């Protein structure tokens, strides 16, 4: 596992985020202090090449750091995870694109909208892009957005990603979810913007992990092995936060056998969830991209999400009425974990469509 020093700094970010979490949940926005802390910690530059001042970190280290932040605030961890991995996706851009994104600042905040909801027309030297993308997490403080759109060709239309600076897109507030409230997962609108060729790449390269610009190992990993990890690691961290909150709520009270059993079972579920997430990160760092292991990564992510929902439900039951107090972080962690686990990348249906059962039975 790489060691860029991100994890111990992330633990401090998590502690700071915990102090601001209630206010972030109320206002539906991370404070400038927390955004600055995430940036200064090195999440945005974690996968950026050292030649641009980046860290060239690995997946295992990022996963540990994201979980550490999630223990204090799930929304902060979600945004930290997304900006790190969005920068990794942006490394598929041509070299001039790297220069433009990171030439003056390795801590550029990049966000991503993966569904190909935009439409682009070929123009001299690039494309003209229009579209509307929902649920673009972290967009309130994004420097660049990586947006996917369809391009008409003589044959089948092709999906491409387009990198746009903040001045070229509009943000429409539309995130009203009961959980993960402070992720700023709003709507991005683009109206006929020219995107030069060096700020675009094929979605097929993003999916396969083939990077024609960078040979760094972390820049050449298939999305199938990465996707679920992005979203489930913050939830695992939040589950540890929920466990701490539940035990604090029960401290000094008489605990019956049912409450004790719920607490015991939930703690085991959370530890096992962490193991499966770390297993996924190990596959990425060791670069063992066999069909069977990539199928396991998707299964692990879906199972972990399901397990965490079950575990945090048990913690809420064990803590009783006090756990639902507005002042209790337990109810916030509960809402955040249930919300995060609903992401399409964490569903069994997604894993089945892409890999199962053929990857396991050899078809």
Low-confidence stretches: none
Fraction of residues in helices?
A: 40-55%
Radius of gyration: 20 Å
Number of strands: 7
Largest sheet: 7 strands, mixed
Task: Specify the number of helices.
Answer: 12
| CATH topology (level 3) name of the largest domain | Butyryl-CoA Dehydrogenase, subunit A, domain 3
CATH superfamily of the largest domain: Butyryl-CoA Dehydrogenase, subunit A, domain 3
Overall tally of structural domains: 3
Please report the first level of CATH classification, the CATH class of the largest domain: Mainly Alpha
Shape: globular
The CATH architecture of the largest domain can be given as Up-down Bundle
Strand order of the largest sheet: 5-6-2-1-3-4-7
Secondary structure category:
alpha+beta
User: Percent of residues in beta strands?
Assistant: 15-25%
User: What's the order of the H and E elements?
Assistant: HHHHHEEEEEEEHHHHHHH
Whole-number average pLDDT?
93
- CA(first)-CA(last) distance: 33 Å
